[in-house]
Design a protein that fits this description.
- There is one protein chain.
- The protein is of the alpha+beta class.
- The chain has helices at residues 2-16, 43-55, 81-97; strands at residues 22-23, 35-39, 61-65, 68-74.
- It has a 4-stranded antiparallel β-sheet.
- The longest helix is centred in the C-terminal third of the chain and has 17 residues, at 81-97.
- It is globular, with a radius of gyration of 13 Å.
Length: 102
């Protein structure tokens, strides 16, 4: 189960690295869990992205603690590589449409 979750978070982190976001989660597997957080640097834009993802039935949340946070993705045993690919596709499409392309 742990290898599966690390594989999903690796896939997610690799995909996010190609998008105009800042990854908050540490990259080293030994310093992370199934939770990956990334930020757009703008709370309102993050809220809009989260709304778009939820409308597409991609379950994420918008979290902040002590001024750190962003879009929170929780990868678990029941998630698949296809789920991660769909999240990346939806987020990438929204970011392109909103003028946030690298």
């Amino acid at each position: 189960i742990a290898r599966h979750i690390v594989g999903l978070t690796d896939q997610l982190l690799d995909g996010l690295a190609r998008l105009p976001v800042r990854i908050v989660t540490p990259r080293e597997a030994r310093h992370r869990s199934g939770i990956v957080t990334f930020t757009l640097g703008d709370v309102a834009r993050e809220a809009a992205l989260v709304e778009r993802l939820l409308d597409a039935r991609v379950m994420v949340s918008h979290r902040y603690t002590s001024g750190v946070g962003g879009v929170r993705v929780s990868c678990h045993f029941f998630n698949s590589a296809e789920d991660v690919a769909r999240l990346l596709e939806e987020a990438g499409g929204w970011l392109s449409a909103s003028g946030s392309v690298r």
